[in-house]
Amino acid sequence: MAVLYKLYQNNRKNSSTRGQWYARATMTNDVTLEKLASIIQRNCSMKKSDVLAVLTELVEVMQDELQASHRVKIDGFGSFKIGLRSKGAESPKLFSASKHITGLRVNFQPEVKTSADKTRTKTFLTGCAVQEAGEYNVPEEEEEP
Question: How far is it, in rounded angstroms, from Cα 90 to Cα 101?
Fold first, then answer.
């Protein structure tokens, strides 16, 4: 299996790389919690219903822990934490959470393995290959008059 990509052209007007082509990963399907539970059931001795119960509870517990300002680290997987977006204030006394905090997000940092030669690789990318999802037909350039 390989990660599929499609090509796209940078068409932003003021970009220094306007006109250049880049690869963008493309997804072919979504895998639900239900599907993950089915796959896990096939690979171990647990029943799908047990796996689904554990994964569902994991989501709830992670929500509670993240909202308590805890980092959630899952060995072999990575770490999750909540991050903030905020606007600047002139001084600490003028900072107001309701006025200056503009958003929340969940940050994920995949686990990193370090090999004997000190090469660091994110666990999910070990052995990963890429492949073009389909050939991109580049339109012929029109001649300028």
Answer: 14
